[in-house]
Amino acid sequence: MRKFMYVAISVLLATSPALAAPILSGPYAVSGVLFCQVEAKVSSTGQLTIDNPGAGLMDVTSSLLTFDPGTGTYTVKGFDLQMSSILEKFADGSRNGFPPTSLSLVDSGAYSNTATAINLRGTIFKVVYGHINSAGVADGFTGVAKDGVEGQPKTCVKQITAQHR
């Protein structure tokens, strides 16, 4: 019975048409989060030191992401809150890390997409699209990506959720 089910599923998958990439067009309201791991070293005395730049960065965004399928470009405008996940206080009173900081978010670049991924200027999100309208435009999507901070190793994860406006 299991062999029959495996064969039946294999035949269905082999004969199923490939999913076409939906069109991303116009403005999408987007929320996103970014979490970067902390890389800490422990000395022989038990002292922790954090060496990787961008370590422990946490970031949340609310933005308007606009796609132009004619040119294959996107623009983003919105708001960003960033903070370090660790705010160290040393015996001498000095600190390392930073509290939540509000920033403007402005970005643009090239994009491409497939049925399962969106590439935003080199950051590749694995995505699931929501409803696709009769014109082939995705009404929304959610995705995850592995990323680095300013060229550092990819120790960060991003998640975005978008809804067409």
Structure description:
The chain is mainly beta. The protein has a single domain (21-164), classed as Beta Barrel (Lipocalin). It is 8% helix and 52% strand. The chain has one helix at residues 2-15, and strands at residues 26-36, 40-42, 48-50, 57-68, 73-84, 88-89, 95-96, 101-113, 117-120, 123-129, 140-147, 156-164. An 8-stranded antiparallel β-barrel has the order 1-4-5-8-9-10-11-12. The protein is elongated and about 65 Å long. The chain starts with a helix and ends with a strand.
Quick rundown:
Helices cover about 10% and strands about 50% of the residues.
Number of helices, counting only DSSP H or I runs of 4 residues or more: 1
Question: Which fold name corresponds to the CATH topology?
Answer: Lipocalin
| Residues in helix, % | under 10%
| Extended strand count | 12
For the record, the count of structural domains works out to 1
Q: What's the CATH C level? A: Mainly Beta
Q: Name the poorly predicted regions.
A: 6-17
Which structural traits does this protein have?
165 residues, Lipocalin, eight-stranded antiparallel beta barrel, 1 helix
